Protein: 50S ribosomal protein L24e
Organism: Piscinibacter gummiphilus
Amino acid sequence: MSPELIFATAIAGAAFLGGLLWARKRGPKTRNVAHKGRRDAPTPANLRYTCAGCAGQFTHSRRTLSAREKGAKSFYCNACHTRSLTVPKPKPWQLVPGAKKHKKAEQKAEQKADKKAPR
Ligand SMILES: [Zn+2]
C-alpha cells in the first residue's frame, strides 16, 4: 500500500460519507413532497396515538403518519423523536466501565533516607 493510495481511499470514503449524509438529509423532504401529491394515503380513524417513549397521548403529525404508512407500530412524540435524534445510543464500548483513572498512590513514597544519613 502506497501512501498515495491510502490518501485516495480516505478521500473517496469521505466523499462517499458526505454524499450519503446529503442523500439522507434530502430523502425525507422529497418523500414528503411525493406523499403530498398522493391522495390514497390512508388516514387513521383515531388521530391520537400513545408515544412509545413517554406513554403520552399525542395527535398524529405528518411524521408519525408517514411512519405509519411505512408500517410502524409504535410512534414517538416530537420531544422523544428529537431526543432520539440528538442523543445517540451508547456504543457497546462506552458501556464498559473499565479504564478508571486511579491516581498514582506511590508519589515518591519511598524517599530514600539514606541520602541524609550522617557520616
Ligand atoms: Zn414522547
